[in-house]
Write a structure and sequence with these properties.
six-stranded mixed β-sheet; about 35% helix; alpha/beta; about 250 residues; about 25% strand
Length: about 250
């Protein structure tokens, strides 16, 4: 498994007081691919994501990452292993500059909490790497602006830069284009393509045109179970998928 697949789940299940939100999900994410997790509202996508990133504990089943059982691992431990999540709601410090935001994330990777109490000069060694990460997401020219000054799409790009500071091998994106206008959408899709060039990406995404553009493999969830899996051409024509989406409007 650890050769072809970076992440695999076996019979992954989560029950909340009698309600089964995720039911026996088997997921295999191929190394170096962009894999989308989609489905109608209430399909279990967010619960599944929370299980994978250890914010929830499974009721049953196993999660394997690089061949290692991480079912009972803590969120911080899996992040250190290279499985890192970017959240649907932007999680940056609004009144720090872009450079400072990325530098904080770099400190987190080093595990040196006492850096916060050291002099500014002691942190200057991180500036070059922070600048490189900002350049990677197209924000180099805005490095000295505060995060609160950024439009929404660029704020999401900054969040991805802070996520990349943790050196993810597998990047999990939670609705990366949610709430975006057309201009921001194009910019963030291009950004995801760029950062996926040498990483594996697993994303939950509502926008089916984004899914079609980015994804190698799509897993469709419905009522907590895997309905179908394949590329966009196959999935979009599947009668079960069409039926699952009827009346829901979008993914």
């Amino acid at each position: 498994m650890a050769g072809d697949y970076i992440l695999e789940t076996e019979r992954l299940t989560k029950e909340f007081r009698g309600f089964v939100a995720v039911n026996g999900v088997g997921l295999r994410v191929r190394r170096g691919s962009v894999h989308a997790l989609i489905g109608p509202n209430g399909a279990g996508k967010t619960t599944c994501f929370n299980l994978l990133t250890k914010f929830l504990t499974p009721s049953a089943g196993r999660i394997l990452y690089n061949g290692r059982d991480i079912t009972r691992a803590a969120p911080a431990d899996v992040a250190q292993m290279g499985l890192v999540r970017s959240f649907q709601i932007s999680a940056v410090f609004p009144h720090l500059t872009l450079l400072e935001n990325v530098r904080v994330a770099l400190q987190k990777k080093r595990g040196k909490s006492f850096d916060f109490w050291r002099s500014e000069r002691a942190l200057d060694s991180l500036n070059d790497r922070a600048a490189e990460l900002l350049a990677e997401v197209g924000l180099a020219e805005f490095a000295h602006l505060t995060a609160v000054e950024l439009p929404y799409g660029r704020k999401r790009a900054l969040e991805i830069a802070t996520t990349l500071a943790l050196e993810p091998e597998l990047l999990l994106l939670d609705e990366p284009t949610a709430g975006m206008g057309h201009e921001d959408l194009g910019r963030v899709v291009a950004l995801i393509k760029r950062v996926a060039a040498n990483r594996t990406v697993l994303m939950v995404e509502h926008n089916l045109s984004v899914v079609a553009d980015l994804s190698h493999t799509i897993t469709v969830l419905a009522r907590g179970e895997v309905l179908v899996e394949g590329d966009y051409a196959a999935v979009s024509k599947n009668p079960q998928v069409i039926e699952a989406y009827m009346g829901s409007g979008h993914a």
